[in-house]
Amino acid sequence: MTQQSNTQAPLKNTQTPQNQSSVVNTPIVLTIAGSDSGGGAGIQADIKAMSATGSFACSVITAITSQNTQGVSAIFPIPLEHVVSQLDAVFTDLNIVAVKVGMLADSEIIKVVADKIKQYQPKHLVIDPVMVATSGDLLLENSAITTLKQELIPLADIITPNLPEGAALTGKAVPESEAEMQDMIEDLRALGAKAVLLKGGHLEKDENSNDLLILPTASAVITAKRFPTKNTHGTGCTLSSAIASFLAQGNTLPEAVDLGKQYISRAIAHADELKVGQGHGPVNHFFAGHGNVR
Predict the structure, then answer these.
(1) Which of 100, 111, 199, 261 is catalytic?
(2) pLDDT given for residue 137 in this prediction
(3) Which one of the listed residues 62, 235, 261, 281 is annotated catalytic?
(4) Which of 54, 236, 260, 281 is catalytic?
(5) What's the pTM?
(6) Which of 22, 94, 117, 279 could staple 69 via S-S, CB 3.0–4.6 A?
(7) What are the chain's domains?
(8) So what's the pLDDT on residue 21?
(9) Annotated active-site residue in 31, 147, 232, 238
(10) Catalytic, out of 38, 234, 260, 281
(11) pLDDT of 182-229, one tens digit each?
(12) For this structure, is 229 an active site residue?
């Protein structure tokens, strides 16, 4: 984030004239994803994470879900023409610096989003490839996964799959250890994104929650403490949105990933301070209050 100068003007010039307004140049980040009526994941989590990390969030909704902390009971995909109209509306008016892509319902929506990204060319693109439910069920048909790999992922600065999603993208078995995560590196690089963050949160027996950042010629393990809580709904949405937010603020990709990891770790650490629902509750996006969370 840009730091303000400590240089002070002469006292007589410190007051802003009444006919001038104080304008804050907040970077704008777009989330393209589904709506979570329970507020813990999807568009709602994205907007909270982007706001908490200091960016202005706007949105394009791809589907409306009926869900709460106990599960999803219905999904209504937004008609394609309305997805298109939302994309055109925000891109033609707002100076969108970074885009985060989450849930995309089918091949047609994936193609439309890819076409609009090519048309409007935002500076940064973060893709959270939402394709596997917590139960292990695929949320995208195989044809849509193929479209995602061919049309959208090669445009990305970074994709952020969890272990089941990494397996679905590469055709390999779901990793059961950090060594097996390492074995997936070349297959993930071959997808064509500039970088991949393979999230190791599913390795629940490990003391730490370690992610693997895969760059074109190097890789690094990003370590964070694992916290014993069931309130982890929306962690993937939140992390990818935070990374997009930090990229929009001018951080390098490794810096944005590191800051995003710190943010989600602290949001999980404070999750039990919230009492939301009967099941797997959300992380605490505003653990530091509304403002800077660094």
Answers:
(1) 199
(2) 55
(3) 235
(4) 236
(5) 0.88
(6) 279
(7) 28-273 (3.40.1190.20)
(8) 57
(9) 232
(10) 234
(11) 999 999 999 999 999 999 876 766 678 899 999 999 999 998 888 888
(12) no
Amino acid at 168: A
92 is catalytic: no
* Token pair for 271: 């999750």
| Residue 232 among the catalytic residues | yes
